[in-house]
Amino acid sequence: MTLDPNSSTPSHPPWRRDPNGVSHLGRDGVLRSLNADRTVVLDVRRLSPEEIKDFAGPADQATRDALEGVDGRDVVDEEVLWAVPEDQKGWAARGEGDGKEGEGKVEGR
Questions:
Q1: Going by C-beta distance under 8 Å and a sequence separation of 6 or more, which residues neighbour residue 34?
Q2: Domain for residue 53, yes or no?
Q3: How many other C-beta atoms are found inside a 10 Å radius of the C-beta of residue 91?
Q4: For residue 4, is it within any domain?
Q5: pLDDT at 101
Q6: Residue-level pLDDT, tens digit, the chain, 109 residues
Q7: Quick one: 71 exposed, middle or buried, by C-beta within 10 A (0-12, 13-18, 19+)?
Q8: Domain count, the chain
Q9: pTM assigned to the model
């Protein structure tokens, strides 16, 4: 992460994503870009508690509570970072939706 010279706020490189894929925020505070079949993690962002709070804003209260105090920057294991979350595995096999309905999904407990 670098600082945006115009605002002194953190700036991220471009987000790699599948146009039919989803963005998924896990309970570990890591935002993952998944392909449409949810079988490959295309990109990851380890979010700070402030970023998690902003991203999870539209989620239900129980999910926001579960993410309280979580810091995705604590996740340093590359294997964990790039693993497809358990609740996303088998999505295509279940035949649920077109892959777009989970955009911005926040994993609850």
A1: 18, 21, 22, 23, 24, 40, 41, 42, 84, 88
A2: yes
A3: 19
A4: no
A5: 45
A6: 444 445 555 566 788 999 999 999 999 999 999 999 999 999 999 999 999 999 998 889 999 999 999 999 999 999 999 999 998 988 765 565 544 444 455 554 3
A7: middle
A8: 1
A9: 0.73
The residue whose two tokens read 């992460």 is 1
Is 67 a member of any domain? Answer: yes
Give the span between the Cα atoms of 45 and 9, in whole angstroms.
16
Question: Which range marks the domain in which residue 65 is found?
Answer: 17-85
- Asked if residue 100 belongs to a domain, the reply is no
H-helix segments, the chain: 49-56, 61-67, 78-81, 91-94
The residues, any chain, with a CB within 8 Å of residue 80's CB and separated by 6 or more, are: 28
